[in-house]
Amino acid sequence: MFLLYLDASTWSKRYTGERGCNVLDAILDEAAITGNGDLFSSAVSHAETLSALVRFRNRTPLPAAQFGYDLSRLSADRDKLSWLTVADDAFRRCTDLILKHNLNATDAALLEVLADLQHQVQPEGHELWLIAADKRFLRAAAAEGLACLDPEVSSPREVRELFARWINR
To answer: What are the φ/ψ torsions at residue 3 (nearest 5 degrees)?
Structure first.
């Protein structure tokens, strides 16, 4: 089994059509088809995704009907995900990550929680992947030992190959 954490920097692409949205669509499709992958996110990433969608609406001529449709898609997608809790203590424990990787507090707390989760699931043979487009967050996560996928540089074909590899383990 593998766990895929959707960061807001990727999740928001699904509704804005930005570079990488086709990779996120492939991830969601493959997870639904194979049933071999737990997609999850956090309340923080959900709120940041909503905020990105609102900012997109404000800077583009997005019709109100399309914005309403995107909000309903976000809600439907949210209901399909598992949730990772980012508790207050993660913000207290992440100061070293902020200093080491020059991260904002939210990304550092998320990385703290993801690293803890990875240590819990690895002995059981599970893989944890961060799906993000935020380059600083990706560099920090990779430096801390997390597997990462950047939808802006990956392709749907690579996603299908990853899922096939995971299925055949």
So the answer is: -115, 130
Q: What is the pLDDT of residues 113-137, one digit of tens each?
A: 999 999 999 999 888 999 999 999 9
For residues 68 and 28, the answer to whether their CB atoms sit within 8 Å is no
Pairing of strands 38-41, 82-83: parallel
Kindly state the helix (H) or strand (E) to which residue 45 belongs, with its residue range.
Answer: helix 43-59
Quick check: 132 and 9 in contact, CB under 8 A? yes
> What SS3 class is residue 19?
coil
Q: How far apart are CA 98 and CA 120, in angstroms?
A: 23
Pick the CATH number of 2-167 from 3.90.550.50, 3.30.70.1170, 3.40.50.1010, 3.30.390.60: 3.40.50.1010
How far, in Å, CA of 52 to CA of 35, rounded? 29
Q: Tell me the domain boundaries of the chain.
A: 2-167
35-91 pLDDT per residue, tens: 767 899 999 999 999 999 999 999 999 999 999 999 999 999 998 899 999 999 999
Q: How far apart are CA 99 and CA 90, in angstroms?
A: 15
